[in-house]
Amino acid sequence: MPAAPSTVSRPYRISVIGASKCTGPEATRAEAVGREIARRGGVLICGGLTGVMASACKGAQEAGGITIGILPGPEPMPANPYVTIPLPTGLGYARNVCVVYGGEAVIAIAGGVGTLSEIAYAFQAGLTVVGLGTWEIDKRRMQYGTMVKARTPAEAVEKAFAAAQARRRYC
After folding, report:
1. What are the residue ranges of helices labelled H in 40-139?
2. What is the fold, at CATH topology level, of the domain defined by 13-170?
3. Is the pLDDT of residue 138 over 90?
4. Phi first, then psi: what are they for 105, rounded to 5°?
5. Mean pLDDT computed over 27-32
6. Is residue 52 within 8 Å of 30, Cβ to Cβ?
7. Rounded to 5 degrees, what are φ and ψ at 97?
């Protein structure tokens, strides 16, 4: 049996979560986040459907990046057209756990209660969540993960990549 390589270089995986119905400015921010993740050579993971998910995937795909859509249903067809790799799960909303755990850091853009649940899963996983116009979280109540704010898409991606890099060092 051949020996395994001593070092494997893998791209950073950044989960992008957010509203399934978003405003124009939220879509613009999501596209910019996706573009920047791809520009840095990262893989974008999301729920694969509409709103923030589609906009982030569009930005990443236009910049030559790879996008993974973890879909709630059993079929790949509902994936937005910018998903490179659709992963149907048949899990419904429970797929949110997979979206979060698939990443090494999470960027939350806007969002409703589904996004809030993903933020909670990220905290339970000990992941950093970078918030870009999303839920305000009382940091005194957090036991595991970290939430940091970003003012721009570029700052959000910078913080997410730094968190992913730190996670690799300690995991």
Report:
1. 52-62, 95-101, 113-124
2. Rossmann fold (3.40.50)
3. no
4. -160, 165
5. 98
6. yes
7. -60, -45
